[in-house]
Amino acid sequence: METVLEKIRSQAKALNRKVCLTESDDPRNLKAAEKLVRLGYARPVLVGCAEEIKKLAQENSVCLDGVELVDVLQTPELDRYIATVVEIRKNKGLTPEQAREWLKDTCVFSAAMVCAGDAHGYASCGGNPRGYAHNTAQKTKPALQLFKVAPGNKIASSFFIMQMPDPKWGYNGVLFYADCGLNIAPDADQLAEIALQTAKRFRMYTGADPKVAMISCSTNGSAHDPIIDKVVQATAKAKALAPDLLIDGEMQFDAAIVPEIGQKKFAGSPVAGHANVLVFPDLNCGNSIYKATERLAGATAIGPICNGLRKPFVDGSRGCSIDDIVDMAAVCAVTEWE
To answer: Is 269 exposed, middle or buried (0-12, 13-18, 19+ CB in 10 A)?
Structure first.
């Protein structure tokens, strides 16, 4: 059976969309761009200083045939991008002079390219410690400021696609984890929205029905505390907003994914033991669990993938591999504009 990542790669290849890679001073991104051309998952755009990119490619024996290089200082489209961001940020008083300086940042420039219709989305992965090496906030802020939250959403969130080595977990070996990269301490309303946003993405990428578990240190009332109450309230709010969605909680991680434990701890739940979307109560929990799953269980972690914005943005870990970047570009390519 085709895995979720294989399905995404096939879809991306058919769509043939242009995706910007922002950390062009990192050889991993150059090698990923070379691989994307060969595999056809996206038309890669390396954003930065064209001469430095070419030099780095030569030093690392990377072939840039078929890779578009866009120089943030010398592109003939710079004035159009300045006008684009000034229009979007006019209510914030952004001037053309400020925009020109702002666009020197490769993440801002890539977001502007997307807003101008010259690329489908951007992936910001890795980073050279001596160069760009944007942290999560620096990668994400341009997307929040220029793409903005899509209609019907109140917040943006993020999730990971966790491809497990063993297909018995989740949906054919895939679990979606949220929010592991953006919202530090969501309240009950925000947690409910994160659950709905992630369920929507799960259905988009897999074509299957999401089964959403609201993760806690308690299962079905086994303990009581304000941190648990938040999850209970979020579950009720999500159910009220999407009554047809299979969502349940609060439940512990093992009760969510192990059928025997789910049946024992939460008998009668349509989700317990069979969850494919796991929503964590806060970023401390979500970020720690995704990294533990990746390192201890040997899972492939793709993301964080931003949810709830008008246009696609994927934020990759600074420790990501070349293949991770390739897959993140593919995910970006198949994510539709809202």
So the answer is: buried
